[in-house]
Amino acid sequence: MDTIESKVSSTILQQTRIVEVGNRTYNVSPPSTATLILVSDVISKMPETKLDNENIIAESLSIAKDCKPLGEIAAILIIGAKKLLKNRWYLFGIDKLITYHKKKALSKFILEELGAKELNLKIYELLKEMEIADFFALTTFLTETNLLRPTKVESKTTASGQ
Q1: Which neighbouring-strand residues pair with 103?
Q2: Cβ burial 105-142 (10 Å sphere, 16+ → b, else e)
Q3: Domain ranges of the chain
Q4: How do residues 97-145 score in pLDDT, each as one tens digit?
Q5: Which of 74, 87, 110, 112 has a CA between 20 and 30 Å from the CA of residue 24?
Q6: Can you tell me the distance from the alpha carbon of 162 to that of 159, in angstroms, rounded to the nearest whole number?
Q7: pTM of the full structure
């Protein structure tokens, strides 16, 4: 089991870890906040559903066609935001295009290679390192701070009805 110190050390040093998908292995860097933001954007495009436990198979199959983003989520977690968002535009954007196609190809490969249970475990395994609780605490704090600030300051008193 990793200690907090070893996790912090590996994050600071950007040490990679090996993630296996099918017959391929990938060196995955520790996830960043930018990676979480990209993943969140893809999640927002997934269908909103509440599955009925009594009819879960039929309902799951009815939304399966809309769940292609699951492969994209796993691909983003494996590739990382730093590589996906790099600002190099050599040779008329070819570098950016190659990165886009790598993500698309990896997403397709993941969906073809992994079963639902494996995909669930792989995404969970990649997300658990993201310290989502800390991200949630930060965003909640900032949202509450934003809600508490005054939005309009009245400089003079007006009579009722005016």
Answers
A1: none
A2: ebbebbbeebeeeebeebbeebbebbbeeeeeeeeeee
A3: 32-137
A4: 666 678 899 999 999 999 888 988 888 888 876 666 777 777 777 777 7
A5: 87
A6: 6
A7: 0.67
